[in-house]
Specification:
mainly alpha; 157 residues; elongated; 68% helix; 6 helices
Length: 157
Amino acid sequence: MTPERFHTLVEAYGADPRRWPQLERADALAWARAHRDQADAVLEAALELDAWLARDMVAPPSRALFEQIVESAPVAVPVQANADRTRRRRFWWSGAAFAGVGLAGAVAGAVAMSVMLAGNTLASGHGAQQELLHEVTHESSYLGTSFGGSNADWGDE
């Protein structure tokens, strides 16, 4: 126990050793016995403060204040019998919506892959299939953006 720690304990918890932290109480009492003059000075100042704080009394609340507080308290709303069922139903629907979005994404990815694979199959074919692929891939009407129309509109500039 250091003198600084003893001073801190007495300032924080007062002069009564019963209020000091139990883990440090024995060390603090041993330090106080070994350094009687310093400990007495610190404990005397703390005793004055403890006595002053002990004199401060708070009057109990009046009956009128008690009744006013009780009247202003919010009224408890009865719990719905179906509250648990409603929560479970909401949770189920949110889970189902999440799963539906995931399923829609998987289907869209599968469709996109099948279209790409079908295009590769057409590219490897001969004759009419290859001619159809050339027409589809070089059609410029779908290559435009919503900002400027199709690329064909910009051809004369």
